[in-house]
Design goal:
Elements: H1 3-25, E1 43-48, H2 55-62, H3 65-68, E2 72-77, H4 81-89, E3 95-98, H5 101-108, E4 116-121, E5 127-132, H6 133-140, E6 145-146, E7 149-150, H7 160-168, E8 173-177, H8 183-194, E9 215-219, H9 225-230, E10 236-240, H10 243-250, E11 253-258, H11 259-262, E12 270-274, H12 275-280, H13 282-304, H14 307-314, H15 324-331, E13 334-336, E14 342-344, H16 361-373, H17 383-393, H18 396-408, H19 442-446, E15 457-460, E16 463-466
Parallel strand pairs: 1-2, 1-3, 8-9, 8-10
Antiparallel strand pairs: 3-12, 4-12, 5-10, 5-11, 6-7, 13-14, 15-16
Helix pairs in contact: 2-13, 5-17, 13-18, 14-15, 16-17
Length: 467
Amino acid sequence: MTIFDVCNKFFKTAALGVALSLSVLTPYTTNATAAELELEKEELKFGFIKLTDMAPLAIAYEKGFFEDEGLYVTLEPQANWKVLLDRVIDGQLDGAHMLAGQPLAATIGFGTKAHIITPFSMDLNGNGITVSNAVWEEMKKNIPHKNGKPVHPIKADYLKPVVEKYKAEGKPFKMGMVFPVSTHNYELRYWLAAGGIHPGFYSKTDTSGQILADALLSVTPPPQMPATMEAGTIHGYCVGEPWNQQAVFKGIGVPVITDYEIWKNNPEKVFGIRADFAEKYPNTTLALVKALIRAAKWLDENNNANRMEAVKILAKPSYVGADAEVIANSMTGTFEYEKGDKREVPDFNVFFRYFATYPYYSDAVWYLTQMRRWGQITEMKEDKWYHEVAKKVYKPDIYLKAAKLLIEEGKVKKEDFPFDTDGYRPPQKEFIDNITFDGRKPNDYLKQFSIGLKDAEIIADGKVAQK
């Protein structure tokens, strides 16, 4: 800690003493405000991956929101999602920007076993699916055009003849995603399956995710996606920004669809911490959630007026480290598909509006259904199980407690938060395949898909079988 930090802490402590004295004299004092939280731990280290949706962490740090809460935070980029999760589990990191599937998978013991929770959802949307120039040239032949441009959304139906051609020639069609329990894996699978392309199953004995697959999906770290595709190792990928736009700028590929078009306003990353961290440091947990809420609000307020400032911050090597022009392509309400085909997508990155930061149980249930659909959850689970896991991992009670403190301080408004929700969104219909998701009925949801496991189906001997 620098001498500046020591001095800063001294003055904050002095101010706290004054605030406490005044609170005794004021007859209309409400519950303890943020400034009065007795923090159990002040110095924290958080991890992140170099993606634009780590923005709430960068903004909370750069705009002083962490320090406002008495927190002295170090932000540290991680090599990949596995390293990030492992370092949270073993305590090297106090928390991290995580894939929404990571706390859920860890808690149920898929891949690793640890009770990870999330009191804060970091954003909506923000991903895209990109294909190589060679694949795009083949796809374009199948896509309807209007005024000389492809009609969006572009479904995987138009990719299917390309995949079938590769298959007929005895060549594997390979695509990259960032992690087995990533949003990207599930969105890519969802898009492919909606177009009749089988993305493959997992099983107890085969965790490649390629059983019965038409398209072979494998893990590639986000910053390496463009170079891996350029080298011909993969023919396309699903990733967050700025790595789809990077393909456009480098002239090596074409983003064909955003996750906003696959599932409008889909939940994306979360902020993950160990359950025992929240239990041991409850006030510290509230303080960090407060800072993240303020950062998310800053990112979206005044119709995204702060986005260019955010772009400059994210472009720093210590955060995303990509060119500001590339980051701005998606962070400022547009998205460029084919070179020169830039379209308005005002909600491509959402950090606060639409209750983006509230950790809905139904969001957790959707991820769990996808784990079941593709065999990561190997056997049928009753609806009750999905709800129990969701409530074990997603913690809206912590979130709303932090929100109430901010409301008392006048930093946010009550209407910014869904205080009247039971944690489940109304049934959601805006998926690319027009299938409705009702988070209260996970097994009924799974029954609607022609590709994917449902009911008592399992993978046995490389085939779908009934248990």
